[in-house]
Amino acid sequence: RALNTIETIKEPENLKEVFASGYAKMFGKQWPMWVGGLLFGAINVFMFAYEKAWSVSDGVRNWGNWFFNTIEVSEMMIIEPHLFTTSILNFGIIVGAMASALLSKQFQVRGAPARELIKALIGGILMGIGSVLSFGCNIGGFFSAISALSLAGVAMMAGLMIGAFIGLKLLVWEITYLSPTSSHTSRKISGDRKKNQPLAGIIVLLLGVSLAFVYDDLDYSIRGGFLVFGLVIGLLMQRTRFCFVRAFR
């Protein structure tokens, strides 16, 4: 005799439980990687139609030029970072990722071993040089270029694959011949503070959206739109852990 097991699903008893259940699904666990890929592709299409495709390195270069102008090392004619669209987009990505980390109670200050910091510094320098030479990073030079059917994107894809292969060989050599680095340290956050993180995340997100409306009131509507795009991209990046370089690796 076959036994049929009937699973009873507990229905939410009130609106609070409905909200809590939905919130747990949104921020309680990591989103699938493929969701991030589809959404990033769609967002880039909208950005193409809005003004220009998604890019990052232009904004970072703008920050660098502004910094060197400020300390009087150079005198380049630049647009101020708070008015340069890619700079605003990058700022939105950082704020959006921070808000998402707070909403998911994952915001925490983490340290890293000295060797990892040195590797990050060297890697960042190489990425900066590469983005200048190729007129784009792995976002603008590869992702957006490929979606625009540019051969430059294909060439950069080949370069990224070669670079990832060399980088993996270096990592294998490090693991084989060098002593392991000590585990990173992190500043522990008490349960009460983590409990308040979602509220802080909502506040950060609202401040970002409010700033977009400020841009609109000052007749900088396009810049405000890029800030909103950045907030959404940052939130998606934190939720999906989407990384183009990791895909090549």
From TrEMBL:
Transmembrane residue ranges: 31-50, 83-103, 124-146, 152-178, 199-215, 221-237
Short name of one Pfam family for this protein?
Answer: Sulf_transp
Chief location of this protein? Answer: membrane
The alphabetized UniProt keywords are: Cell inner membrane, Cell membrane, Membrane, Transmembrane, Transmembrane helix, Transport
Membrane topology of this protein: Multi-pass membrane protein
Q: Where in the cell is it found?
A: Cell inner membrane
| Family statement | Belongs to the TsuA/YedE (TC 9.B.102) family.
Name of the featured protein: Uncharacterized protein
